[in-house]
Amino acid sequence: MYEGRPLHETGWEDLKAFLEEGRPEGTRLDYKRKWGQDVVRDAFAMANTSGGDLILGVKEVEDRRAKTHAPDTTDILGEDSSKDWKTIVEGKVRGAPDRP
Fold it and tell me: Would you list the DSSP string of 58-82?
């Protein structure tokens, strides 16, 4: 959910604005540059706790003083309307082993 709106009501400009805020990762927010087994692991972890947001296609920048990661707004993969990302991610998570 972003600004009180369900995710399906948000668009590319909303995502860019969110990333430009520079919110650091935490227990309910994680950035991933590309798909990997850690995405499945993190999705399961969020689903088994209080939920959260996993944002794919965003490089992380380490903040050593805060000991956390924030989005690198200069390196975002961008919107690819030719792919149905929701279907792709759901298929990968559902097809993953029970214990990543």
Answer: EEEEEETTTTEEEEEEEEE----TT
Q: What angle is formed at CA 48 by the lines to CA 77 and CA 63, rounded to 5 degrees? A: 45
Instruction: Give the Cα separation of 22 and 81 in Å (integer).
Output: 25
Q: Which residues form the domain of 33?
A: 7-94
Please tell me the pTM assigned to this model.
0.65
Specify the number of domains making up the chain: 1
Question: 69 lies in a domain?
Answer: yes
Average model confidence (pLDDT) across the chain: 76
Highest-scoring range by mean pLDDT, 40-44, 61-65, 87-91? 40-44
Residue with tokens 């990302």: 85
User: 């995405």: which residue's tokens?
Assistant: 39
Distance CA 33, CA 39 (A): 10
In a domain, 100, yes or no: no
What pLDDT does residue 100 have? Answer: 47
